[in-house]
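Field notebook, page 297. I keep forgetting to write these up properly, so this time I am using the form the group agreed on. The chain and the ligand, zinc ion, are recorded exactly as supplied. Prediction of the bound pose follows.
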Amino acid sequence: MTGKILLYYKFQPIADPEAVRLWQRDLCEGLGLTGRILISEHGINGTVGGDIRACKTYVKKTKEYFRGIEFKWSDGSAADFPKLSVKVRDEIVAFGAPGELKVDEDGVIGGGTHLTPEQVNELVAENPDVVFFDGRNAREAEIGKFKNAVVPDVETTHDFIRELESGKYDWMKDKPVIAYCTGGIRCEVLTPLMKNRGFEEVYQIDGGIVRYGEKFGNAGLWEGSLYVFDDRMHTEFGAPDDPNYVQLGHCVHCDAPTNQFYNCANEPECRHQYLSCEDCRETNPYCAECAAKAATR
Ligand SMILES: [Zn+2]
Ligand SMILES: [Zn+2]
């Protein structure tokens, strides 16, 4: 049996999220799909995996309610997810601002202007003032980001509002700002928050870094690796020997260039993910903090 994983989101008003939750749960159970689906009054955000025919049926049925929803297909199976979780939440992306997000049938209201990967390059070529603003967690940017991007000091998306209101980024408010994130969903929520706080000219990239990387590889304005939320921890847009490839990350122990994140071996006490070279990982499989603590013991 060939397995597939589906990634998708859609912002649209949902009058009865609980009814949609029950429908989606029954649909997935009936098809033998597992994964994680979040539903709010603003839309749906999901990752499910299973048999390819079951995935096709799921897409067809889900499109009946979520018109125009786009699915990203990748290889995998139900085995990649231990179970099925379908939940109603205040937000499908947790920025801690459910009351501020406004959506209609066309999606998010008042968000940044969408740019194709080509339009990103055109905008930057036309205007030297353009600023890239990283819409991810700071850790993700350690191994890859857009050239000269501003990386806010955030551990989770919950920290963005505090950062935006801190005054640190006020110098960007009258400049063209391109916000970016992995697949685009976080910027759908981040860009209206920015505009509501006085950022005048805000853009976002259609399909996020993923689509930009598919288009330009390492030959565009992207530098380094892309952090991903699965066991691989990172992915590249070109071959490893690509002369345009830039390795941005450094081993926390010996400073050697690396793009490999590891979970600190002091689990479950420590939940840190940290960058390490292979050699140090073998002799010292801990994050910098835990390694320092062990050394003073
Ligand atoms: Zn090292
Ligand atoms: Zn640790």
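OBSERVATIONS:
- The mean pLDDT is 94.
- Residues 264, 266, 270, 272, 286-287, 289-290 surround zinc ion (ligand 2) (CB under 6 Å).
FOLLOW-UP: compare against the apo run.
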